[in-house]
Amino acid sequence: MSIRIFLSTTVLLLTTIQLSLAQLITTAAIPKVDYVVPSQYDLAIPQTDILSGYLGNRYQLNLEKRLLQVDEEGLLEGFHSRPGKQRWIGEHIGKYLEAAANTWLVTKDSRLKQQMDRMFHRLLETQGEDGYLGTYLPENRWTSWDVWVHKYDLFGLLAYYGAVGDPKALKAATQIGDLLYNTFGDTPGKKNILKSGSHVGMAATSVIDPMLDLYRWTGDKKYLDFCRYIIRAYDFEGGPAIVTSILKHKRVDKVANAKAYEMLSNIVGLVKMYRLTGDKDLLNVINYTFDDISANRLFVTGTSSDHERFQDDHYLLADTSAHMGEGCVTTTWLQFNTQLFSITGDLKYYNEIEKTIYNHLLGAENPQTGCVSYYTPLIGEKPYRCNITCCLSSVPRGIALIPYLNFGQLNHIPTILLYEPAQIKEKIKTSSQQTIPLELTLTTEFPRKGTATLQVNLPQSAQFPLQLRVPEWATNYTATVNGKTYKSEPNQLLKIVRQWKNNDKISISFDIRTEIVNGGKTYPGSFTLKRGPQIFALDQSLNPQVDFETAKLVYPEKAAIKLTEAQDKLPKNWVGTLAYSTDISTSDNKKQSILLVPYADASQTGGFSKVWIPTTGR
């Protein structure tokens, strides 16, 4: 049986999973509307995709220490005892349901299933007869963050529906959609949605994203019409002019009040509208957005925002005072790039996905506690907290997407995208168009080592292509099958077409490039090291011998950087096994030894960490 899920703000593409009848609660649904613009990458989990290794461990920790530990009463209290204690308190249950549903589809964890079923049913108990599912009193409805709350209701309900097929979830989502359609619009008697949300209306108009999901699930054209109204509303008096501003300026910092999370949430919705309509103006908006953020407003760790807003070109303050790298922005940037990769198959978008996952996304969640930092600085102690915030709910949604991105069908070819240990089962089509089961076992110590073995298991010999992504940071890449060696350059896809036999093995080898990255306009004279996809940081709790206020480090030359594995220097309670020591020259012709760890691991014990290491110059 084929079961497919919506990846909420990421994609409305489907997931194929084989389940026994005992695992099924109800019959899962299939969306009624397909995209007009074809997908080059099918954002779907295979029948089985069990990650281990570095990413797999962090994915499991997200389940154990964050999702299973959520404050159920705190997430639901605002619905059961209106009004909520915070204006946006209602967003959290939808974010939880989305992350939980996507995670359960991968793990089939019974504890998670029981928890999300319980919370789903308790949420539905509070829905009004008119479809209202917010946390506001009747006299205050559709003010402040009320539409925003319903946006996340929709994400959670539709993800849950896609995972378990419970028709009550789709009914509840449809009731919300009908209520929004009947409440807002530019016809007589309807409210102006711009006046029902913060940040020049962008908080409310970002409901365009799940409303397009709802259109796909139901086929009801009024939801598509509602989203067309939202795009028109951008240009109403006092509106954010998202489309017209980006088409004119090609800069996101010139849009409305430059609020990054809300704006990107709208633009992800515009990506889906493009996929449903083929509107070329929207495609231009999407491309200009990517080009501008990636070139001018992106931190080296794959996030954006300073005080929650897009700033001027290359203005990238990275300490705690800048309130940089809001977790919600990190997750939405990941979702945006995932959409673009799905549309185009272009590896430039995947490079951003990889950068974000390995660095700022994982860096925002403490692997020891499951707590999340709202803003995650590159310089300073990461302020991990477990109290309910938008980012505590958003970051797990991003981590839940990882198994949708390590392997998949790219240009209709099974493709390994991340070199993380994995057990994968999927059905594929052979060159003769026969459908057969395929099992892949990827064994590797990456990111520590640049070697991997991919074992192919089949019921019978068959000819078909397999693709291997060659990362942009991988050099001397080779893949050898039965004595035949294939070579490829960085940032390419290596396609191997052959008559595959059961137990065939591909031996993969590549060098993991180490780079010195300059601090740029904001931190001239400072540097960091990047090894493969990982940005390194200096955690001062691991370097008590170094006084960086008085150290006179000299900007290193590439040839002088030699990394030595030093995991034995990590404390016993440290989560992670990657650590490297290196010597940096000082201005008085001495050597200063420093210990570096991945930024995603740094500050987990409360240490002050630095990505940008200051020097006296070259």
What do the pLDDT scores average to? 94
* Helix content, binned percent: 25-40%
Choose one word for the global shape: globular
The first-level CATH class name of the largest domain = Mainly Alpha
Strand portion, in percent?
15-25%
Helix-strand makeup class: alpha+beta
The tally of helices reads 15
| Intertermini distance | 62 Å
Number-wise, the strands total 22
Overall CATH architecture of the largest domain: Alpha/alpha barrel
Query: What's the number of structural domains?
Result: 3
The CATH topology of the largest domain is Glycosyltransferase
Low-pLDDT stretches are 1-27
Organism: Sphingobacterium detergens
Pfam family, one: Beta-AFase-like_GH127_cat
Protein name: DUF1680 family protein
Summarize the structure.
With about 625 residues, this protein is of the alpha+beta class.
Notes on the structure:
This protein is of the alpha+beta class and 618 residues long. The protein has 3 domains: 21-405, Glycosyltransferase; 409-512, Immunoglobulin-like (Sandwich), CATH 2.60.40; 514-610, no CATH class. It has 15 helices and 22 strands. It has helices spanning 53-66, 72-80, 91-107, 110-124, 146-164, 167-183, 202-205, 208-218, 221-233, 242-249, 260-277, 280-296, 327-344, 347-363, 390-399, and strands spanning 41-42, 48-51, 372-373, 379-380, 384-385, 407-410, 413-416, 422-429, 435-444, 451-457, 462-470, 474-481, 484-488, 492-500, 504-512, 514-518, 527-531, 534-539, 564-565, 580-585, 591-598, 609-610. Strands 4, 16, 17, 18, 19, 20, 21 and 22 form an 8-stranded antiparallel β-sheet that branches. A 7-stranded antiparallel β-sheet has the order 2-8-9-10-15-12-13. A hairpin with a 2-residue loop joins strand 17 and strand 18. Helix 3 (91-107) runs parallel beside helix 15 and helix 8 runs parallel beside helix 11. The longest helix is centred in the first third of the chain and has 19 residues, at 146-164.
